[in-house]
Amino acid sequence: MTLKTTESSQFEATKEVEKEILIDVQNVKKYFPIKGGVLKRTIGHLKAVDDVSFTIYKGETLGIVGESGSGKSTLGRLLIRLLDPTEGKILFQEADITHLTQRQVRPYRQDMQIVFQDPFASLNSKMSVEQLIEEPLIVQGRLDRNQRKARILEIIEKVGLRPSDRQKYPHEFSGGQRQRISIARALVLKPKFVICDEPVSALDVSIQAQVLNLMKDLQDEFGLTYLFIAHDLSVVKHISERVAVMYLGRLAEIAPKNRLYENPLHPYTKALLSSIPVIDLDEDASKVKREKIKLSGDLPSPANPPSGCTFRTRCPQAHERCAIDRPELREIEEDHFVACHLYDNK
Amino acid sequence: MSNQPVLDVNNLKTYFYLEKDVVAKAVDDISFSVYPGETVAIVGESGSGKSITALSIMQLINKPGKIVDGSILLNEQDLAVLKPRQMTSVRGNHIGMIFQEPMTALNPVFTIGSQMTETIRKHKKLSKKQAHEKAIELLRTVGIPRPEQIIHEYPHQLSGGMRQRVMIAIAISCEPELLIADEPTTALDVTIQAQILDLLLEMQKKYEMALLLITHDLGVVYEYTDRVMVMYGGQIVEQAPTKQLLKLTKHPYTQGLLSSLPNIDQDMERLGTIKGTVPPAYNFPKGCRFSTRCPFVMDRCKESNPALTELEKDHYVRCFLYDGGDKA
Ligand SMILES: Nc1ncnc2c1ncn2[C@@H]1O[C@H](COP(=O)(O)OP(=O)(O)OP(=O)(O)O)[C@@H](O)[C@H]1O
Ligand SMILES: Nc1ncnc2c1ncn2[C@@H]1O[C@H](COP(=O)(O)OP(=O)(O)O)[C@@H](O)[C@H]1O
Ligand code: SF4
Ligand code: SF4
Ligand SMILES: [Mg+2]
Ligand SMILES: [Mg+2]
Hints:
The structure holds two protein chains of two kinds.
Chain A: E1 2-7, E2 15-36, E3 41-57, E4 61-65, H1 72-79, E5 87-92, E6 95-96, H2 102-109, E7 112-115, H3 129-140, H4 145-158, H5 175-187, E8 193-197, H6 205-222, E9 225-229, H7 233-239, E10 242-247, E11 250-256, H8 257-262, H9 267-275, H10 320-324, E12 330-333, E13 336-338
Parallel strand pairs in A: 4-9, 4-10, 7-8, 8-9
Antiparallel strand pairs in A: 1-2, 2-3, 2-5, 5-6, 10-11, 11-13, 12-13
Helix pairs in contact in A: 3-5, 5-6
Chain B: E1 7-19, E2 22-34, E3 39-43, H1 50-57, E4 65-74, E5 77-78, H2 84-93, E6 95-98, H3 102-105, H4 112-123, H5 128-141, H6 147-150, H7 160-172, E7 178-182, H8 190-207, E8 210-215, H9 218-224, E9 227-232, E10 235-241, H10 242-247, H11 252-259, E11 305-306, E12 309-312, E13 315-317, E14 326-327
Parallel strand pairs in B: 3-8, 3-9, 6-7, 7-8
Antiparallel strand pairs in B: 1-2, 1-4, 4-5, 9-10, 10-13, 11-14, 12-13
Helix pairs in contact in B: 4-5, 5-7, 7-8
């Protein structure tokens, strides 16, 4: 399926791009049962992801931001079928992978990889770097031993590690280097799609910058598509072409990044953006004076979300309708989707 | 700003004796002052010595760590000579501290109320009932809704942001002159972070406290503090009024940090980076501690460590590019 759109931004010349959909997510839900009582019966559901639809285009980076517990990681794991959706449909290159068994999903696995946040926990400490990177190749079973060794050497150098590092173990590396190992492990199968779940959140800024630059270079070189999950909005803006904002298991807004950051429409996105402390040295000169919108209260529990719009308990613009009707995600302007009753008439 | 500092740290060294001949110089000769009503930031990457600086001030360094040199004066009183009992009283009455992860600082088996009244009664002569009322009032002050109810709850029943509010309530309960907050919002989401930092500043004004804010976020430094010290390898490498430091950045490390931050207002193809990684505290390079990563490294940087030198009024830098005097 191809789609023609005009992408414009303040910084790039307007260009026509052919957009090919890699992943199509339709009304996906993930409800986790809540057990209770002596019999451990299901007494309710935690709506981690609640009716989410969007597309990911080939070669792009789609960023996902949202508060802790808003469902970002759950969504990521659903897309590559590490979790089974409760409802909805997931298409990967037009193939419906929603209900495939783990065995049936295996051929797709090599195209879909994931890099986790915690470089300390996500690598088996008993395996050497070489074994860690070789493991997915062995599971895939396409290359012989010599071919595997050659592939490992190639990827090790691509991610900026030294050939001599192959014999070392994870504890011998710093956080940034471990994240390079995780990236090598994810890319060794030459996937098309990589989910990056907070890959730099645990790293110091100077190391974070090294890893972000590396991820951009690898994307260009291998033509990768990224779903980049993070809670740092400036990191997401740096790496993404489009950004989606999640709140309590739902999408609040999704748009090309410059549109979203310069002209956020959803009250939650506005508050989120204005809460980031920024170094704004020529305050007087800056065109857009940052207006601070401070939210009160905490994120409600996804086990018991508010009726209607789930953001209404914290929204400065909540009105009567917001408690009754759930706002649908609608395209308010080209490529800019918002779920909020303030835009009902647009 | 009065001339008499609340806190005066001189040549503080705190080392950890890990094994025979292995010494981690977590804090290695740092000096600074904090004045009444001021908000001072300590910024630096993990392992640079920020928390150990705070814990040294609180006299909370345990084996194998030890304060090996220097003095810490609180209102001219040397904390090192105090008996443990006296120091306990200083910690409650004169210095309050807030930690990064409130869950570790709060006791999970006691209610919020019992922990608060215990702290209050340790330092103030109040009856149980009066302390309970004081606790409710404090919870209200820090913006906790329904304090009469929350006071009977346990820490795990509260969200991260609420727990941090409780920690603030406890820290300010005895109206200290100095509040030390060690990464108080690092575990929190940005909308909650903004609430907590605003609350800290509001409390600071209300109780006229000096605030020492430890963070790794230069955006937080910019928006919330008056003065900033940048730490690297257990030492202060640059110190200045906040805006000056961020505008007229002198030290190559601070410059590197700033260039590696993605800018939310500007698109950049690539981020600036600092090559390599932070050396461990038990194995600093000879000479300037940043010399293994510095793009401007010169021969003399590998031989001796520059001194922290006042380049302009109130702007201190530790770097030979500005020809600081040699120091072993
Ligand atoms: N296996 C599970 N069983 C029950 N509940 C779960 C499970 N996994 C996640 N949840 C819940 O689903 C919600 C969304 O979790 P998720 O991990 O997707 O959030 P997130 O946006 O990635 O948060 P963070 O920023 O903290 O990583 C949370 O309330 C979480 O507690
Ligand atoms: N209990 C300890 N034992 C040994 N080394 C320690 C201990 N606590 C801290 N250190 C070392 O001291 C240095 C400074 O630590 P810390 O002050 O916690 O850094 P920061 O708070 O800036 O991240 C680090 O190198 C750390 O490894
Ligand atoms: S629908 Fe209502 S409550 Fe929800 S974001 Fe819009 S205005 Fe606010
Ligand atoms: S003293 Fe030398 S190595 Fe150290 S920061 Fe300055 S130029 Fe770099
Ligand atoms: Mg997550
Ligand atoms: Mg610390």
